[in-house]
Design goal:
The structure is a homodimer of 332-residue chains. Chain A has 13 helices and 12 strands. Chain A is α/β, with parallel strands linked by helices. The longest helix of chain A is centred in the middle third of the chain and has 16 residues, at 197-212. The radius of gyration of chain A is 25 Å and the shape is elongated. Chain A starts with 10 loop residues before the first helix and ends in a 5-residue tail after the last strand. Chains A and B meet through helix 4, helix 5, strand 2, helix 6 and helix 7 of A and helix 4, helix 5, strand 2, helix 6 and helix 7 of B. The structure holds a DNA duplex (30 and 30 nucleotides).
Chain lengths: 332, 332
DNA sequence: GATTTTTTTGGCAGCGCTACCAATTTCGTG
DNA sequence: CACGAAATTGGTAGCGCTGCCAAAAAAATC
């Protein structure tokens, strides 16, 4: 028994084997158009016998209708994006779409290059994070004619479709909550905001509401690099060294907030008695800590699901605000 | 100014505009074959002017050499897989390869279906987790002729390429470490092992060394569902309710271990005085907790990098063991 | 039973590009 | 300046499939 290596079985061979025409095989396989039950069985038998695997590359080229969906995401380290991919991939798989991705490291220039590379695959849609793109990216996407989905933000003008929630509102609501709780001397610990513009929008919203509430931000510590638990710990340490009398700290996200929380645990700083901690994202881990983290839970998986849904149903241009949920927790 | 929507510029149009033949444009664009500097400039100018984006679908079909790499991974919730993707995607991008993925939810049957769907894109390689695949998956992959990379495990027979580390050895080494530290009454808290076979291998290795060391596993708590911090917390709670006199607990991974750690913090159980905790993965968060988590750090990103490297260099079949590192931490 | 209608089918021209080969131009040498 | 070698080019046949159209077969109608 010889092993036929790389024996690429083609549709034509299946047609021969089944004793029908190529287009008939194509119709049966896609369950599109009409054919008799008898020929369907004959075709399927031949497919089975030959181990035929349709070539989607050829199919896509011929039909000029792609079922690829391209994700251009800032990071895979920040759990936000795997969550979005998870939600989207479930929906896409059900609809026989295929997800393709690349990672920009929060670099708009890289985003442009990667978006260009993606467009070369003629995807049905390109899924991006947020609204901040280079002029070149926008121009290219517009010219491509494929659907564009901007995810995880709704504060801005959408190119086509947008799914997410308002980061500005999240920041404002966090501030309002802390003010209501009676905190007056608040600080902020965050990561590089110039790259993560959504974190920047939260911070801006937070400061705005604090100022309006008569308790403007007392101090802040911005760390270079990505958000991480360790950076959160370090950031809070530095912030408190400089401004020890803070009564609450807002973190750029839960990773950072957990770092801050651990710092307090390690130093024996009573939470929230002496210092309140507030995060963003609503990670599961924040619910399992000795004191549940006060934070805002964002619909990350749902964002991916809805984004994918809009694409597969070819929905008209629109902005879908999925909202978020404030979790009181026990750290504020 | 009319907006040409969906104005798919083709290579032929670029050739016309530049006043050269199609093959010349193709050669220039791929920087392959010879052409004069003058024609290159002319071609590039035309490309620029028309906003030409090569169609990789067509290119792939014509060359029958794909630059797609298909990832069929169990999960995106378990940070392990985003980490692997991250390492791989960096290398793939550099080499103008494109990553495609789908998620199996640890279901071998789904893996088979998704692998089949992937092969339809005629990828250069299929990247899978571990060695446990259905017969159908194996047959299909073998027949496809594309490269196969089994990642995150080296305990078994590789189909083609394998990159990772020994889960069995990780379990054994964890046990040896705890024995050396003097723990004698040990327990285990894990998630569904029938699905996550690599966690199963660690557990088996762990038990083996414990038995050899004369201190066989005292009790275990296996939770249904995926690993999570909350499940770790819950698992330890149940385990201790049943067997309060344990002196150390091995967790299926760091997520679970952190849950256990938080449980001890909440209950005031001294660590490691009364109970030692040992994890697996070496997540960053485990280093920022008040007491750094004792665990084994696995080269997840490197696994992705090396896997991608082997594919782009078309390396001969081989198994690459990247090893792992035991981190003593302060919880054991 | 003849004719119309409906359902199934096969043929074939591309989809946009690459690979191969032959034609053309340029260059180097004697 | 002639001539072979080397460097550039263009033409064109597919890659494997889908979409369109016309042909054939089956079913329905009178």
């Amino acid at each position: 028994m010889e092993l036929k290596h790389q024996a690429t079985v083609t549709l034509a061979e299946v047609a021969d084997a089944a004793g029908v025409g190529e287009s008939t095989v194509s119709r049966v396989l896609r369950n599109h158009g009409s054919f008799s039950g008898k020929t369907r069985d004959r075709v399927m038998a031949a497919v089975e016998r030959l181990g035929y695997v349709p070539n989607r590359i050829a199919g896509t080229l011929a039909s000029t209708a792609s079922r690829l969906v391209a994700f251009v995401i800032p990071s895979l380290s920040n759990i936000v994006f795997p969550d979005v991919l998870r939600g989207a991939s479930a929906v896409l798989e059900e609809n026989r779409y295929q997800a393709v991705f690349s990672v920009t490291d929060y670099d708009p220039t890289k985003e442009e290059a990667l978006a260009a590379a993606m467009l070369a695959w003629r995807p049905a849609a390109v899924m991006l994070a947020g609204y901040e793109h280079t002029e070149g990216t926008v121009k290219m996407l517009r010219a491509s004619g494929c659907r564009i989905v901007e995810m995880l933000d709704v504060d801005g003008d959408a190119l086509d479709l947008a799914v997410g929630f308002s980061n500005g509102a999240a920041g404002r609501e966090s501030a309002a909550f802390l003010l209501k709780r009676g905190y007056r001397r608040m600080g902020y610990v965050g990561h590089d905001l110039t790259r993560d513009t959504r974190a920047g929008k939260r911070f801006a919203g937070f400061c705005e509401t604090l100022a309006t509430g008569g308790a403007p931000l007392a101090d802040r510590e911005i760390l270079a690099g990505a958000s991480s638990v360790e950076n959160g710990r370090l950031g809070l340490e530095r912030l408190l060294a400089r401004t020890p009398d803070l009564d609450a700290v807002y973190f750029s996200n839960d990773d950072m907030a957990l770092g801050g929380y651990f710092h307090c645990l390690a130093r024996g700083i009573p939470i929230p008695g002496q210092l309140a901690i507030f995060g963003y994202n609503g990670l599961d881990i924040g619910r399992a800590t000795p004191q549940p983290l006060s934070t805002i839970r964002t619909p990350r998986v749902a964002t991916g699901q809805v984004a994918a849904q809009l694409v597969v149903t070819n929905a008209p241009p629109q902005v879908v605000d999925l909202g978020f949920e404030l979790i009181e927790g026990a750290t504020a």
